[in-house]
Specification:
about 110 residues, mainly beta, eight-stranded antiparallel barrel, 8 strands, about 40% strand, globular
Length: about 110
């Protein structure tokens, strides 16, 4: 009735829910597209690959781990924040930081 289709019914189990949300495992090429430096007038953010994972670091702060929830969206493991990168096949042009009800967009810098 609401245009979403018939849906699918799943079987209920007694298995507990995961204690920690599970992240997606993205291919290295997808991570490389996001790695780089981003900035605006207030903030500089460096996104880098550490092993098989993506991390981010704001200038003068320790790095944080990122958990992929989609190919362009990541939750910050250590804080109630998230990053959303611009979509596409080329290096991401922007990243939007969401934290404490605020949104801050940063552009890729050389």
């Amino acid at each position: 009735a609401n245009g979403e289709g018939d849906g699918e019914v799943g079987a209920r189990t007694n298995e507990p829910l995961p204690a920690v949300p599970l992240g997606l495992q993205l291919p290295r090429a997808a991570l490389e597209r996001l790695a780089g430096a981003y900035a605006n007038n207030e903030l500089k953010l460096t996104v880098f690959i550490d092993g098989e994972a993506l991390k981010a670091q704001i200038a003068d702060q320790p790095p944080v781990s990122l958990r992929a929830t989609s190919p362009t969206q990541f939750d910050v493991v250590e804080a109630p924040a998230s990053l959303e990168f611009s979509a596409g096949d080329t290096p991401a042009k922007t990243v939007t930081l969401r934290q404490n009800g605020r949104m801050t967009t940063l552009r890729r810098v050389p």
